Amino acid sequence: MIYKKIIKDDIPAIGQGCMGIGGYLSKDTSQDNISIEALRQGIELGMTFIDTAEVYGDGHSEELVAEAIDGIRDHVFIATKVSPENLSYDNVIKSVKNSLKRLKTDYIDLYQIHWPNPKIRLSETMQAMEQLVDEGKIRYIGVSNFSLNYLKEAEKNLSENSIVSIQIEYNLIDRTIEDTILPYCEKKDIKVIAYSPLNQGRTLNDKEKIKKLEIISEKYNKTMAQITLNWLISHTPVIAIPKAINIDHINDNALAADFNLSEKDFRELGNTFNQKIIYIPTDRIRIATGNRLVYQTIEDAIENKLGFVPSPEDLACHIIKEDILKPVRVTKNTDITDKYDYNLIEGRIRYWAWVIAYNGKRSIPAICL
Ligand code: NAP
Fold first, then answer.
1. Which run of H or E residues covers position 134?
2. What is the DSSP track for 199-242?
3. Tens digit of pLDDT for each residue in 92-132?
4. Ligand 1, atom 34: nearest CA belongs to which residue?
5. pLDDT tens, 141-153?
6. For the chain, give me the number of helices (H) and strands (E)?
7. Distance, CA of 81 to CA of 17 (rounded, Å)
8. β-strand 278-280 against 163-169: which pairing, if any?
9. Tell me, what's the pLDDT at 107?
10. Looking at the whole model, is its pTM more than 0.90?
11. How far is 165 from 191, CA to CA, in rounded Å?
């Protein structure tokens, strides 16, 4: 394992993500035993950095982490997150209390703001965070899904502490942070915690890219997942947190840091997968694909009956303020008689947030897979 430093702590460069462990937005107990087993195996193999959130499985993910770390609390580095609707001073204090209870611990190593909430002043949230550090309830403060400007604003709102990390999507496909957050964090020694490092386990359609990954994997006698993770953590500030419940995957991920990609292969991988961002008029995208719940109209998105957090409207406020959006993902529609040119694969909240922010008049940034 390779380690990266957060102030006084040496953190493994490959950790364990817990989204979906214990359920997604609601509690799911059907895989409790194998989840605990998977986490324990990962810890045993050195992936002692565990990332969870109060929202995962409606708190059940934190409960499973508690089971997995029973008796070994001091050997693990626990990161959890406060949800955007809980960013007022009182609610941050309440959230941490509940997380500590579910995690069966008296301190959280890294407490992260899960998403920005433009309706609550950052100064108020950060005041609560610093109070929690003073009380020893949390050790370090981190943010997640913040733009570079918002990260800088968060830093300005701390007086005694610093932001030690930003958790954000980063993988071979989504390279949005490379010109902004990544160089800034490298300069300021802020860790970039790469979420969805394996692109959520999705396989790519692009045969040429897959071929390149296969060739490099064979050369190093490693799996494609190991090559991908190694490429990520080869960036100085980056720690990757793959989620895995399958024991073979756990074993695989734990050995993803024990080799070095050559400079040439590192560059070649980066160049091969670098996907250009395109800008598409929002009415050219079919939003209802697959069986995920999506809003069909702007009115429904504003009403947010499904209770997405952040809501499309809240995210729209953030987009207007920051003038930035992580690209949505689309595929090209091959049916030329269809009135849509693209199908939305990922980013159903971001899509509506963008439509609300610019009244449907501005093309949306997208990655076409
Ligand atoms: P991910 O880690 O990129 O992918 C997880 C998927 O990859 C699972 O289906 C897993 O299968 C599979 N997998 C894991 N290791 C593998 C391997 N060695 N070979 C082949 N497949 C493998 O996706 P993610 O869960 O979205 O991201 C990871 C973590 O980042 C989350 O768990 C969460 O902690 C964090 N996250 C944070 C945010 C945020 O807003 N801050 C958003 C998303 C994610 P099995 O489970 O079957 O093993």
1. helix 122-134
2. GGGPPPS-HHHHHHHHHHHHHHT--HHHHHHHHHHTSTTEEE--
3. 999 999 999 999 999 999 999 999 988 899 999 999 999 99
4. 17
5. 999 999 999 999 9
6. 13, 15
7. 12
8. unpaired
9. 98
10. yes
11. 4
3 is catalytic: no
Give the tokens for residue 279: 């800008």
- Strand 49-51 versus strand 3-6 pairing type: unpaired
Strand partners for 5: 10
Here the tokens at position 253 are 């991920």
- Of the candidates 318, 232, 315, 331, the residue with the CA atom closest to the CA atom of residue 278: 331
Whole-angstrom distance between the N-terminal and C-terminal Cα of the chain?
32
Residue 129's φ and ψ, nearest 5 degrees, are -60, -45
224-252 burial code (b ≥16 CB/10 A, e <16) = bbbbbbbbbbbbebbbbbbbbeeeebbeb
> What sign does the dihedral 95-26-146-233 (CA atoms) show?
positive
Among the atoms of ligand 1, which is closest to the Cα of residue 229? 18
Bridge partners of 163, per DSSP, are 141
User: How far apart, in Å, are the Cα atoms of 354 and each of 167, 283, 303, 347?
Assistant: 22, 12, 15, 10
CA 285 → CA 7, 247, 282, 341, distances in Å? Answer: 45, 38, 6, 6
The Cα–Cα gap between 280 and 345 comes to 14
- Ligand 1 pocket (Cβ < 6 Å) reads 17-20, 51, 114, 144-145, 167, 195-201, 225, 241-246, 249, 252-253
Mean predicted confidence (pLDDT) in 181-204 = 94
